[in-house]
Amino acid sequence: ASREWIFYGGSPCRKEMWRKLGGYRAEYSYDTQDLDFWMRAMTGGFKGYYAGRVIYEWRRSSTGMNERTSPASRVRTRVHNIAFYDRFGDGIGARREFLLNAISHREYDCAKEMAAQLLQRRRPSPLVLFIRVAPPPVIRGAHALWLRARLRRPR
Predict the structure, then answer these.
(1) CA distance 155 to 137
(2) Is 29 a residue whose pLDDT tops 60?
(3) Angle formed by the axes of helices 108-120 and 136-152, to 10°?
(4) By CB neighbour count within 10 A (0-12 exposed, 13-18 middle, 19+ buried), where does 154 fall?
(5) What's the chain's Rg over C-alpha atoms?
(6) For 36, what's the count of Cα atoms within 13 Å in the CB-facing half-sphere?
(7) First-to-last CA distance in the chain?
(8) Smallest Cα–Cα separation from 10: which of 42, 44, 50, 57?
(9) What is d(CA 7, CA 90) in angstroms, rounded to the nearest whole number?
(10) Which of 5, 68, 79, 71 shows the shortest CA–CA distance to 36?
(11) Which of 11, 60, 90, 132 is at 20 to 30 A from 126, Cα to Cα?
(12) What is the rounded CA–CA span in Å between residue 103 and residue 85?
């Protein structure tokens, strides 16, 4: 029975599931690999279970990989796993939220990807249309202008 299981990082799982999903994606090796893995697993029809007891102790370290996770990497992971939100939540709402999060974390390619998906689903808005057609340097400039204007606004 123990030969059916594999344990990488903090994700004990069946070897069959690990093989079918292709394990962790290299692009997330130093930040959100567990989040990405389990989002793909659940979207793929696999199930996770709550053990109800501690099965291992996670010793966090200020120099460990878990400390390198940035808000931008979490946005990228969620954008790349948007099918998870289509299956288990509000895919349209998630796309709108991730578009705004991607802009605020300067992940303009992720913002463009979300804008394209919103347009495919017939959910246009002036912002979505602008993000879809503008090149990243223009988006970056517009974002910088918006931030400056916001800072000058009296509260």
Answers:
(1) 30
(2) yes
(3) 100
(4) exposed
(5) 19
(6) 22
(7) 63
(8) 57
(9) 32
(10) 79
(11) 90
(12) 19
- Residue 32 identity: T
- Residue-wise pLDDT for 118-141, tens only, equals 999 888 899 999 999 999 999 999
Q: Please, are residues 108 and 140 in contact by the beta-carbon 8 Å criterion? A: yes
Alpha-carbon separation of residue 143 from 8, 89, 152 (angstroms): 39, 29, 14
Please give the angle made by the CA atoms of 103, 106 and 110, to the nearest 5 degrees.
65
Note whether 26 and 19 are within 8 A (CB).
no
The region of weakest confidence among 33-42, 63-72, 76-85, 96-105 is 63-72
State the CB neighbour count (10 A cutoff) for residue 71: 11
What the block records as the tokens of 84 is 């998870």
Q: How far is CA 71 from the centre of its chain?
A: 9
Distances (CA, A) of 56 to 11, 69, 75, 95, 145: 11, 21, 28, 35, 48
d(CA 36, CA 10): 12
Contact 95, 130 (CB under 8 A): no
Contact present, 139 and 103 (Cβ < 8 Å): yes
